Every structure is written in C-alpha cells, then in structure tokens.
Amino acid sequence: MSVQEYFSLVFTDYTLRTITLGTAILGIVCGMLGSFAVLRKQSLLGDAISHAALPGIVIAFLITGAKNSNTLLVGALISGLIGTFWIKGIITKTHLKSDTALGLILSLFFGFGMLLLTFVQKMPNAQQAGLDKYLFGQAATLVESDVWLMGGVMLIALVVLVVFWKEFKLQHFDADYTKSLGFNTRFLDVVMTALIVLSIVIGLQTVGVVLMSAMLLAPAAAARQWTNNLAVMIFLAAVFGAFSGIFGTAISATSNNLSTGPVIVLIAAFFVVISFIFSPGRGLLFKQIRHWKNRNDLQLHKTLYFMYEIAKTHQDISHPHAVKILNNFQGYTKNSLKSLADREYITVDGAMWSLTPKGYEKAINLYNQQDNLND
Amino acid sequence: MKEKIAIKVDDLTVAYNFKPVLWDIDLSVPEGVLMAIVGPNGAGKSTLIKAMLDIIKPIAGSVEIFGKPYKKQYKEVAYVPQKGSVDWDFPTTALDVVMMGTYGSLGWIKRPGRQQKKEALEALEKVGMLEFRSRQISQLSGGQQQRIFLARALVQKASIYIMDEPFQGVDATTEKAIINILKELRKEGKTVVVVHHDLQTVPEYFDWVTFLNVKKIATGSVKDIFNDDNLTKTYGINYKVSVLQ
Amino acid sequence: MTSAQIEIQLIACIVAIACAIPGTFLVLRKMAMISDAISHSILPGIVIGFFLTEDLNSPWLILLAALSGIITVVMVEYIQKTGLVKEDTAIGLVFPALFSIGVILIAKNAGDVHLDVDAVLLGELAFAPFDRLLIGGTDVGPKSLWVIGTILLLTLGLLIAFFKELKISTFDKQLAATLGFSPVLMHYGLMSIASVTTVGAFDAVGAILVVALMIAPPAMAYLLIKDLKKMLVLACIFGVIAALAGYWMAHWLDASIAGSITTVLGMLFLAVYLFAPNSGLISVLHRQKRQKIEVHLLTFLLHLQNHREKSERHINHLNEHINWHKVRATSVVNLALKNNMITIDDHIISLTEKGKIFTTEAINYIITNKSAAIEDMKERFFLFRG
C-alpha cells in the first residue's frame, strides 16, 4: 500500500480511519498542551516523564497479565507521576540542579523499565510481544476504545483551557502578578501539570516513550514562529500536531517495519525547520535579508551624508561636483551612486553629481537623527 | 496623626531557607504618601513588598491593607513587578498585557469585554503608549516595557500602588513620565510604595521614605528622616546627603 | 568465573569509569541533559559509519559518530543563539529528530545493519567477548575492551593535562577567560570527550546506560562530597560498584546486563538521596525542622528586644500578634527557657543577659554577613537545639 492509497482508503476503511483519527487527535492534544510546556520552560520535563512511564507499563502488565491498553496506561500514569515528584524532590531538597534531576530520573527509570521488559520477553507466555510498541510507538495497534480515550482527554483539555484561559495566560506570563491579583497559582499549576502528564501518557502507544517529548515540543516550537498571539499559537500548534500525526501514521503504516514515533517526530521536525527559516516575523531568512538591507541603507546614508557635507559648503546646494571627490570616501561605489539617483536624492550627469533638494532635506534629517542619538 | 493607615506591617519576619531576610518589621504607611523603600542590595526590599502582596508567606507577623488581610483587599492593591521577572518573548501584545490588569476585578473564569478594553486603552494613552498597543512586547524598549507595566497597574484602579524598581533600566524621558504619573496618583489621594535604588532622587521624587536593611532602620517623611544618620545606619558606610546632590 | 565473564565485567567497569569522568564535569556545569542528547543523536552517525566501514568497532565509525554528537551540541547552541525558542526547547528539538533519522535508517536497512532497536537502547554487553581483536593472528582480547580502554586512557590523559583549566572554567568562566584559558575550547573539548566516550560505550552498553553512567555516579558523589578530585574518584567507584553488582544481578535474574546496571544505579542513588549525611533527604528534613524552630526563636527574641513595652511582651501577645499557633508559640517559648535566653515573670517575658547578647550578635551577623551560616553562633549559645 502506498501513501496515496492510504489516504484514498481513509474514509472507507474502518481500521485506517480509527488509526488516523487517533493520531490526529493525539497531535491536537500535544500541540495545545505542548505550547504551555514550552512557555513554562519545562520542555525537557516531558522527556523525563515519558521515559519514567516505562516501568509503570511493564509492572502493570506483570501484575494484571493483560494487554488492555487502559490498564497499562494507568501504570504509566502512576510511574510518570512518581518520576515527576521525585524530580521535584531532588531539585527542592538537594543541591542537584534541574538538568541533573531530569537526566537521573529519565535514565534510571527507563533502564529499570528496560530490565523489566527484557525480563518479560523471556517469559514463556508469548502474548507479551505487544509491549515493544511502547518504545517507539505503533499507531497500527490503536483500536476504537483508544481513540475514544484520546478524544475524552482532548475534550477535557479543551474545556479546561477555555474555562481557565485568562488565568493560564496570566500565570504563564507573570506568576507573581497573578498571585497579587488573588488567583490561586498552585491550583493552576497542578491542573496544567496533570494535563501535560495525561497527554504524554495517552501518546505512548502511538509515539513511544523515547520520542514522546518531541511530539509535545515540536508543534509548539513551530507555531510560536508564526504568531505573537497565544490563542493563534495554540491553534497552529494543534494543526501542526494533527498533520504530523496523520502523515506520520500514513507513512509508517504503509511501509514495513517502521515504528510510528520516529516518522511523526521527523515530520514535526520538518515543520520546525520550515518555521525557523521562513516565518515572516522571526524567521532566519527574513532576519538575514533585513540585516543586509539595513547594512545597505546605512552605507547609502553615509554616502549621502558625505555628499551633504561637500554640498553644504556651496551657496547653491545643487551645484554639481565631480564624482572624483568621492574617491576619498570609502563607502562609495557605482551602485550606491545609482541607488541614490534612483531615490532622487542626487542627479548624476556624466562625471558630475549634484544633490537634489529632496536629498538635501534627507541628509539634514539624518544629521538631526544623529544628534538625537548622541543625547 | 489622624490620617488613615493604608498598609500596616506588624512584627513581620520573612526567612529564605530558614535565614531571616526581614526581621521583625513594624511599619505603617499612611494613606496618600509617595513612599520610597531604600536600602543596600540584599536588604530585603523586594521581599518586603512581596510579603505585603501576600506573594511570600512570612514566618511571623502580619500585613493589613486598610485594616484587613490582603486576601480580602487584593482589589485595592496594584503591583508593578520588576521588569526582569517576566518572559518578554511571551506571545502577547502590549494591549493584552495591560488588559491583564482587569483580571483581578473580573475574578475567576469571567472574560474581559468591551469595557475592560476601553479602560486598557485609556491607561495606555495615559502612559503615552497608545500607538504601540498592538506591538509584540519583545519589540518594545526597556522604558516602553516599564510603561506597559505601569499601565497594567493603572487599569486596576486601586488605592495602593506597589512597585519594584520601576526606574531600573529606563530612559530619562520614561523616568520623568513615570514620576509624573506617580505624583498625579498621589494628588488623587492614592498611596504609592516604590522600591528605589537611586538615593539622589529620593528628596525630589518622594515625600515619604523607609530605610531598610533586614531590620527597619527608620520610616517617616523625607523632610524629617532623610539624613546622614539614617543613611549611615542603613548602608554601613559614612553617607552624607550633601554628597548625593 | 569464565574468562568471558571476567571480560564482560572488565568492559563494564572501564565503561563506568570512562563515563564518570566527563559526567562529573557535565553535572557540575549544569549540562547533564546534553549527555542525553548526545547519546541519542550519535545514532545516525553510527548507522552511516556502519554503512561505510561495516565494522562497529572501527575507529572511523567512532570518529564519525562522535562528530555527529558534536554537531548536535553546535546545532543546539545555534538554535539557542537565534532566540527563536527557549534554551531547553532547543535540546528537546534536536536530539529526537536525529535519533529518529537513526532509527529509520536502521529499520529501512534491517537486512544490512546488524543493529536492532533493542541493541540501540540496551547494547549487547553479553556478546562483547565474542568479537575478538586479532593482531597478526593472535587473539589479544575483545575489541570493545580495546576501544573503550583506549578512550579511557585518552580521557585520563586529557584530564590530568588540563585538570586546572577544566576546574577553573567549570567554576568560574570569567576568571578562566581572564587567565587566558579559553572556556570555549574547554567546553568543546569536554563535549568531544563526552561524544567519543558515548560512542565507544554505546555498542557495549546502549544509549540509556551511557546516560545513567554519566549522570548518576557523579550526582551521588556530589551529594556526598564537594571537593572536585574526591568527587571524580567517588563517582568512578560508584560506577564500578554498579557495574559489578549489576552484572551479577543480571546473571542471577537472567536479564539484560545494561538494564540491571541501571537498576543498581537507581537503587544506589535512592539510598544516597535518602541517607547522605548532609545533603540527603532525611538529614535535610531533620535540619529544616530544627532550623524552622530556631528561626522562630530568633524572631521571638528579636521581638522582645525591639519592644520594651509590657503589652508587647505579654505571653498571650505571641499568638495574637505575631500570628503563631499556640503549639508553635509554646515550643518556641520552651526552647528559649531551656537555653536561658528568657525569664517569665507574671506572664511578662523578658530577655536575660545571655538572650540580649545573643540577639544583638545574631542581628549584626545577619546584616553584615548574610551568606554565611549562622550555625556557628548557635553552637556557641545553645544548650539544647530545636
């Protein structure tokens, strides 16, 4: 099956529709909540939480022996939360810094989970093979009840964000001020952290513990480049997230032996790269162009100012002068002369140039501006 | 004196990591004064106003705003935090930030509407930032950002304004604009408390002053207590008012 | 023990030491998450290197993969410099993308690359002794032992040669720059060593254990000791203990060696986190409880000194005015009485001479010397601690 075939079948084939809907919803949830994770400078917390979820999944499996994904998710949720609290405990109670705490919990929990996982794989009953999908995700294993669960989480997240929109915005911008206005910031904090952990946990089956955090960050990081409005940013992040999910699933489901997680992450990363380079306001390309343009303008202004200094000495400002005089001035080129003429600041006649009244005016303004800057 | 007390701080002790940073502070700020809090670095100036605003919990003592605890009076108080305390790359506009000043009186869940927008625009005009209303906040200069913060506090229409170093890193024009607005607030009978660094400008800008260095050194009108003795007690070195000018 | 078992343990120990050395500096420089990023992002380098050399232990592959680790660091720093996203987001964006490329390359060429995803994460330490290095037909030991041994020697050599420079640039970048040691050079030197070590260890123990071995032993050492040299030694010892204990645990459970070593590291860390003498959780909580009542005592004494009037010194005033609950007020008053700081006369509390001296000294101490601990003074005055 090719990717085109995949999309032509999406609306008719039950399984494909379920899978696609699931990853799209997941992308929306991650985009929305990831925006807040990025803004609250907890980008790497997601990475630690998702890794910390692994032992919980395996232990839940060992206890219940069930492959029912909801049971496993409860396990993931519990061990993810334990990891989160331990990170907090390390940061607040010892002198270890947050990066060390994150790295510790991430690697130690995950290593323990992998130990349990290899242990499970050696067990005689063969049905456990399904646990592997939690490493890199396998969207193809999504069933309708999973999608309902994701839909439920999306709805909860959406309602909470709409209801407490003003409070969340305020708190993420200025927490102290929020407190001074009489809002309970701890409550808001707990709600947001809980939502982020929940979104990570429901994504594990699709994207996997190793790459889940990127699913949270990348759409938000891409969306941030296109807008300076929080609501628009969250909407765009949800869109980027949904597209990453859908395309990632389509590509991985149509080729053999390809986990969903890495494909989704690469598509999200593609959105990030495009946004970093081409966004009109903040993008690197336009920044570079603006930089060149400014440098160019500065050069022209310097030349014009030099001409003004010469022209000033004459009664008649439009008195022609030889181009040769300008050779003393380093900034001048044939091109800059032409640009100045195009802007009607000067007229060029053969080897002579003369300032126009417009150019004279402009140069005086430049002079004034410089004066102001010196103040 | 018969005047009303706006902020009453009683036996306030605040500790970070169990080391006192403010120690048994007693302080009454009369209504209608423009007060500077001065003291060396690490004297606990920001801590004191954060304790006034119930942002930090003290280990002993209490703060009363017009005779009641802060929790019941938060609508009476507007806060201007230090400019460096927030993320200026946050995706929001100048107008949006000023609108945040209305959130306190709106309370939980309720959204700002046309009335709130009108008030925010008025405040922006007052600080001379109306034309920058739809600018992203990172594209504003330091002085402009400070004006936005001031506008946000003005929108709160409070009786008490508490500000943490509003003149830090702003240009001369902005400093003048801010101080004019503060003086205007005082004329309207509001109380203004400002953490201030520049001792030189204290007599010119303020009429009330508190010297602070972990303990309260002195508090009173600038005329009475802004002298060599208190400066020396606060800063530890031989300070002279005459040298400042 | 068979010779294969000894060789595996030897490799594990050398990997542990080779990781602990750069790890100590990463932890001290608040860059622990960089090791996580490097361990993930060298994967595409390894896969491409494998296509070219067809040998996981080839020095070219190691250099190529280490290069991709350094490219990660450069990319992260470049993105941070553009200011388009927050600093930690930059790390979180770069390494998952590179790791994904690696995983997809492996999956797409499953037939040609003898790497599978489990091996990427966990390594195949148990098989390390089977890949022998033959020099002129003689068997001189497992290849990975030679690889990681060489890396360890290199690391040790650089550590000894540049110890002073590393130390200064870690604790005081500005001083390092003024003394003429380039902090930038030290930074990239450290990143290069971390990358090379990660690649060298990766084949044997996998990405996760590399991160665990780089962060956990130095973190434990840091909780126990502040001296850099001792910290390095202690981190190496912790690494070796975990390597040996982990090996035998895996042997006993018949499970993954890397997973077991990480689990042992986790248990060791939990123990240190709870029981470390000064920085452990139990000691911290105990100290905080004591400091809490003592800071209340200080507050109380200062209040007595500040207020001479009787109404302020009445015993009931404590609850009403200072805003304390009865229990706290009682325990504070009792502590003050036990230490002969106060006397109570008809419900009016007065400071004793000793109380006055203590209070005056304490306030001077805090105003002039804020950062230093007040503990010495407490030792001199207190008969009973809180």
TrEMBL record, chain A:
Spell out the SUPFAM superfamilies in the cross-references. ABC transporter involved in vitamin B12 uptake, BtuC
GO biological process annotations for this chain's record?
A: cellular response to iron ion; response to zinc ion; transmembrane transport
Keywords annotated in UniProt = Cell membrane, Membrane, Transmembrane, Transmembrane helix, Transport
Cite the Pfam families for this sequence.
ABC-3
Q: List localization entries.
A: Cell membrane
Which residues span the membrane? Answer: 21-39, 45-64, 71-89, 101-120, 147-165, 190-218, 230-251, 263-285
Listed Gene3D superfamilies = ABC transporter involved in vitamin B12 uptake, BtuC (1.10.3470.10)
Spell out the CDD domains in the cross-references: TM_ABC_iron-siderophores_like (cd06550)
Q: How does it sit in the membrane?
A: Multi-pass membrane protein
Specify where it is mainly localized.
membrane
Q: Which InterPro entries match?
A: ABC_BtuC-like, ABC_TroCD
Q: In terms of domain of life, where is this protein from?
A: Bacteria
Q: Which GO terms describe its cellular component?
A: ATP-binding cassette (ABC) transporter complex
Q: Which family does it belong to?
A: Belongs to the ABC-3 integral membrane protein family.
Recorded hits in PANTHER family, A to Z, give: ABC-TRANSPORTER METAL-BINDING PROTEIN, METAL TRANSPORT SYSTEM MEMBRANE PROTEIN CT_069-RELATED
From the Swiss-Prot or TrEMBL record, give the protein name: Manganese/zinc/iron transport system permease protein
Q: Which organism is it from?
A: Arenibacter nanhaiticus
TrEMBL record, chain B:
Taking every annotated instance into account, which residue ranges of this chain make up the domain ABC transporter? 7-239
Q: Which keywords belong to this entry?
A: ATP-binding, Nucleotide-binding, Transport
Q: Does the keyword Ribosomal protein apply?
A: no
User: Which SUPFAM superfamilies does the UniProt entry name for this protein?
Assistant: P-loop containing nucleoside triphosphate hydrolases
- Which InterPro entries does its entry note? AAA+_ATPase, ABC_transporter-like_ATP-bd, ABC_transporter-like_CS, Metal_Ion_Import_ABC, P-loop_NTPase
Coiled-coil annotation reads none
What highest taxon heads this organism's lineage? Bacteria
Which Pfam families does the record associate with it? ABC_tran
> Could you tell me one molecular function GO term of this UniProt entry?
ATP hydrolysis activity
- Record bears the keyword Nucleotide-binding: yes
**Family (UniProt):** Belongs to the ABC transporter superfamily.
What is this protein's record name? Manganese/zinc/iron transport system ATP-binding protein
From TrEMBL, chain C:
Keyword line = Cell membrane, Membrane, Transmembrane, Transmembrane helix, Transport
Task: Write down the species.
Answer: Arenibacter nanhaiticus
| Keyword check for Transmembrane helix | yes
Q: How does it sit in the membrane?
A: Multi-pass membrane protein
Query: What's a Pfam family this protein contains?
Result: ABC-3
- Spell out the Gene3D superfamilies in the cross-references: ABC transporter involved in vitamin B12 uptake, BtuC (1.10.3470.10)
Lineage top rank: taxon = Bacteria
What protein name does the entry list?
Answer: Manganese/zinc/iron transport system permease protein
| SUPFAM superfamilies, sorted | ABC transporter involved in vitamin B12 uptake, BtuC (SSF81345)
* Claim: Transmembrane helix is one of the keywords in the record: yes
